[in-house]
Amino acid sequence: MRRDIQERLRFFRSFLAHPRQVGAVLPTSRWAVRDMLDMADLPQARLVAEIGAGTGAYTGEILKRLRPDARFLAFEIDPNLAAVLSERFDDPRLQTINDSAENIEDYLDGAKLDVIVSAIPFTSLPTGAKESVFRAAARALAPEGVMVQIQYSTVLQEDLTRRFASVRRRLSPLNVPPAFLYACRMPLPQEAPQR
Question: Structure pTM?
Answer without folding.
Answer: 0.84
